[in-house]
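User: Batch of two.

Assistant: Item 1 of 2:
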Amino acid sequence: MAFTNRSSTTLLFALAFGLFIGAPIFTAVADYDPLLPVFEKWMNDTGKVYGNNTEKQHRFQVFKENYQFIESVKNQPGLTYTVGLNDFADLTNKEFLEKFAQSRTPKPSNESTRFKYANCESIPCSIDWRDNCAVTPIKDQAYCGSCWAFSAVAAIEGINKIKTGNLISLSEQELVDCDFRSSGCLGGWPHNAFQWVVENGGITTEEKYPYTSGATETQGTCDASKTSSHDVTISGFEFVPPYSESDLEKAVANQPVSIAIDASGSFHQFYSSGIFNGPCEADTFHLNHAVTIVGYGAENGIKYWIVKNSWGTSWGDSGYIKMQKDISNTAGLCGLAIKPAYPTK
C-alpha cells in the first residue's frame, strides 16, 4: 500500500492546532514520529476512531511494531508472497487471534470414513470455482470466532450451486445460534455444522437470518421461526482422507471443501498477495481457523490452493489467500490437509 507524506508545514500546522483525526497524540513538535502521518492516513482509510488519546497512543505503538514487522519481511529471502497493512494493523497478533480465531477447538464427532472421490482419476490441472459462479462474495466474521460457520456455509453454497444451478447466500448466524455441537463465537468444526444442517432439514438464507454476532461479539438465541425455513438442503458430509493433498485435490476438483489451518503468527495476519509458503508457527499444528478451498492452480512452477477466508475484503488478496500446495509435509501447509470435509447433496 502506498502512502503520501504530508508536507512538514502542513504537519506542523496540524500538530499545533490538533487537526489530526481524533485527539492529537503528541503535544510537542519534538515528539513527532515519522510514522505518525502513515498512521493517520491508515486511520482515515480504515475509518478507525479511538475513544481517548491514551488508547490512540497505545494503538499507534502497536501499529508501529506491525509496520516494522511488515518492512522487515520485505527483505526475507524465499518468500513467494507479500505482506502489507490492513484493517488489523493496530492489533497485536495475540489480540488478532483472540478476536478472529477459535479460542477453543471442540472435539470432532460423527466421524465419516466414506470418500466418494477416491477413484477419481481424471481431474483438471487447475480449477477455480469462482469462475463457475459457485462462490458467494467474501464475507466478514468480524469480532466473533465463527470461522467454522463461514467455512461450512461456503462449502454448502458451493455444492448447492453445482447441483442445482442456484447460488444462494446462506446464513452463518443460524449455525452460530443453533448448532449445539459447536460453541458459537468460541469455535466449532465445519463438519459438525454440516451434521446440524442435515438434522435440521436444511439451512435458511443470509437475508432471512442475517449475521449479527460480528457486532455483538457473542452467540445469539436460536430463532426457531427462522430455522424452519429450509431454503437449501444437504444429504450429509464426508471427510477427505487426512494427510493426503492428492485426495484433497480430487475433492476440490468436484466441489469447494472446508479445511482447518493453524493461522497463528503475523505472517497470516498481514498476508497481502502471492503464494503463501509459510512460515507456520509450529510443526505440531494448532488448528485454530476454518476456511474453504475453492480451487487450485500453479504459478511460476509453484502449485497453490485458492482459499476463501472470512476476514473481509481488506485482508489478503481481496479476502482470499493462495497457499502452497503439495509440500513435503503430509499435513499440508499449516495443517490444511489434516481435517478437510465437504457436504454431500
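Item 2 of 2:
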Amino acid sequence: MFLALQIWLGQHLFGIIGNPGFPAGYRITPKRVIKWPCEEPELDGHQFATMNTDLPIPRIYRTHRWRGHLGIEMEYVPHCTTLQEGWHKLSRKYKQRIVDQLSKYIAQLRSLKPAPGSSGKVSATNGGACHDVRVGSAKPFGPFDDIAGFHRCLRGGVDLNATPEIFGDKVADVHARPYGIRFKHGDLGVQNILIRHGHIVAIIDWECSGWYPEYWEYTKAHYNSALLPEFYEMLRQRMPRYDDELAAERVLWRFFDQPLDVDYAQHKA
C-alpha cells in the first residue's frame, strides 16, 4: 500500500517517466524514482554490474513488493535525455566520444566471469531463468546447461540436423560453432542509454542481462538498429564483430522472431 501511495503522489507531483501507456518509472522525490513492475533478474543484473564494473548505473536505495511484483527504488538521473532523443543534436566529436565510452563499458561487461561450475551455462545473472525480448515478449526461458540448448530454443526446438533445410546454411553453420559465455546487458538500445553534455551518464533497464554466448551483445545491439543507423554503424567499428552471427540472427528475426511466442508448427502453418 505504501508503494501505491508513493506512485500516486509521484504521478501528481512529477508526472511519469516515459510513455503514459507503458511508464518506464515514477519519480517519488526530486532525487528518487521507482521502477515497477520488475522481476528479480533485473535487480540481480543491475546489482552485479554495479558491484563489478565502473559503468554509470543508477544507485539502488531499496526494493518494494506490491501486487506480486518487485519495485526498485533508485537514483533519479536529472538533466539528461536518452541517446535516441539526443543523438541527432550531437556534434561528430560527441557522437564519437559516446561510442568510445560505450565500447569500453561493453568490454568491462565481457571481462566478467560466471560463478565456478557454471561457465558453460546460459542463464540470468543469478543462474536462473532468462528474459530477453528477442526470444519471447514475456515468458522466462532456460536456463540452459550449454549453448547448444540455447540455440535450439532460438530455432523453436528444430533439431540442428534439420536446420539447413528450414532456416538455411547460415543459421546451421553458426549454431554448430563453439562459443564462450560472456556477461551482457542484453538491451543496449538507444532508449536505455542516458546522456548529458555529450557523455553517457547512465545505463538503465537490466532486465535482459545475464550470461549468454559471446556474440549476443553484438547481435542484440542491432535488434532495433533501424532507430539510429549511424550510431550502430559507428558502434560496430568499436565492438568485437560477429558478422556471421548477425547474418544468422537476421535470418531468424525475419522468419522466426520471438520463438517462445509461437511454436514452429504454428509459424509454418
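The mean pLDDT is 90.
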